Amino acid sequence: MSEITGVNTIGLGSSERALPADALGLGLRIPHYAYLYEHWPELDYFEIISENFFGHAEPPLRHLERIRARYPIVLHGVGLNLLGHEPLSEQYLDQVCRLADHVDAPFVTDHLCWTGSQGMSHHDLLPVPYTPELIEFAAERAAYVQRRLGRPFGLENLSSYVELEQSTLTEWEFYSSVVRESGCYYMLDINNVYVSSQNHGFNPEQYLDAIDYDRVLQVHLAGHSREVAHTIVDTHDEPVCDEVWRLYARAWRTGGPFRTLIEWDDKIPPLPVVLKELERAREVRG
Amino acid sequence: MLRTPLDRSSGTLRATPVQYDRTLRGETLPNARASADERLAVYNRQYWFRLFGLFQSAFPLSSRLIGHWEFNDYVARFIGANAPQGYLIDRAIDGFALFFARSWRSIPGGARRPPHLVPRRALIEAIRIDAAFRGVFYAPQVTPFRPDAAQAATLLESRLALSPAAAIFSEHWPLVELREKHANDEGAPRLALPPALAVPQRWALVRRPGGTAQLKLDPREGELLWLLLRYPIAGALGRLEARCSGAERESLPERARFWLARSVELGFWSGLHSQEMS
Question: How far apart, in whole angstroms, are the C-alpha atoms of residue A11 and residue A272?
Answer without folding.
Answer: 34
